[in-house]
């Protein structure tokens, strides 16, 4: 089964040419990392998260990231205000449903956002995507991918993860990105496995948050949400590989790897991964039954 052709050099050029402004409503744990990753791709980050101004800021932006690491009542209202403004002004919304399924409160917040907003891309780990799909008790993928706190533990098969991502995309009416050892991107018509990345990426706190930031940048720069999700996920993984290969300096552990990873994103040259190679890394793995 074939996957859509992704022109990564053109996508990166579009980002660096247009320099989209991204308003990231995110959590305090990774706010600095999220801002830096947006900047490293060539976009402009703004972290406006005050309920009084967030709608005004989103109205001037080209992308909106909603990260639900903060599930306070004020955080929920801010996310709703940002998302509504984005919908009103045709700004793509990327939702990172941090820890959905871990507690009834987090699940209720995500249900509220999905019920009220038109979301463009949902980016989560395999357990979060399974929880949104509503198949957490029925899917082998999510049975093997338990939520503990805000992390997914256990391993799921790619086929099961693809089924969960497809179900999530159909349930939410958005492109779903499920991150894991093999990433899966799905819309309502098909799911695609992306083979890119390195295990070191999982040893750094916040790589899920910064993947969401990456997707918000690509969604702001490309008209097609599926193409944006595929290109953004692939580019993020390629940068992780280059950092692990020592192309941006040696590293001794997670902290120094994170520095190299940031440098790799800032310096990623898509000509290092020609289209023909990228085509072998993206495989169509499932369609709805």
Structural class: alpha/beta
How many helices? The count is: 12
Low-confidence stretches: 135-145, 147-154
- What strand line-up does the widest sheet have? 2-1-3-4-5-8-9-10-11
Percent of residues in β-strands? 15-25%
CATH superfamily: Ribokinase
Q: Give the CA-CA distance, first to last residue.
A: 15 Å
Rg on CA atoms, Å: 17 Å
Known CATH architecture: 3-Layer(aba) Sandwich
Oligomeric nature of the chains: single chain
How would you describe the overall organization of this protein?
With 289 residues, this protein is an alpha/beta fold. It has one domain: UDP-N-acetylmuramoyl-L-alanine:D-glutamate ligase (3-Layer(aba) Sandwich). It is built from twelve helices and eleven strands. The protein has a nine-stranded mixed sheet, sandwiched between helices. Strands 6-7 form a two-stranded antiparallel sheet.
């Amino acid at each position: 089964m074939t996957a859509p052709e992704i022109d990564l050099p053109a996508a990166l050029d579009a980002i660096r040419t247009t320099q989209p402004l991204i308003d990231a409503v995110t959590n305090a744990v990774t706010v600095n990392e999220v801002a830096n990753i947006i900047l490293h791709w060539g976009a402009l980050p703004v972290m406006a998260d005050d309920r009084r101004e967030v709608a005004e800021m989103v109205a001037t932006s080209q992308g909106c990231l909603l990260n639900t690491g903060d599930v306070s009542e004020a955080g929920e209202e801010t996310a709703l205000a940002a998302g509504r403004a984005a919908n009103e002004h045709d700004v793509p919304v990327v939702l990172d449903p941090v820890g959905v399924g871990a507690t009834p409160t987090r699940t209720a917040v995500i249900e509220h956002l999905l019920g009220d907003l038109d979301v463009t891309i949902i980016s989560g780990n395999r357990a979060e995507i399974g929880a949104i799909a509503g198949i957490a008790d029925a899917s082998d993928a999510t049975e093997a991918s338990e939520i503990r706190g805000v992390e997914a533990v256990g391993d799921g098969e790619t086929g099961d993860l693809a089924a969960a991502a497809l179900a999530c995309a159909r349930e939410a009416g958005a492109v779903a990105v499920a991150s894991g050892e093999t990433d899966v991107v799905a819309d309502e018509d098909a799911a695609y496995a992306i083979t890119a990345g390195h295990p070191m990426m999982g040893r750094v706190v916040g790589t899920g948050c910064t993947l969401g930031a990456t997707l918000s940048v690509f969604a702001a720069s490309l008209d097609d949400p599926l193409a944006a999700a595929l290109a953004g996920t692939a580019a993020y993984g390629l940068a992780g590989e280059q950092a692990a290969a020592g192309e941006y300096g040696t590293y001794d552990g997670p902290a120094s790897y994170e520095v190299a990873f940031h440098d790799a994103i800032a310096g990623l040259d898509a000509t290092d991964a020609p289209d023909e190679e990228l085509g072998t890394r993206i495989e169509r793995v499932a369609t709805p039954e």
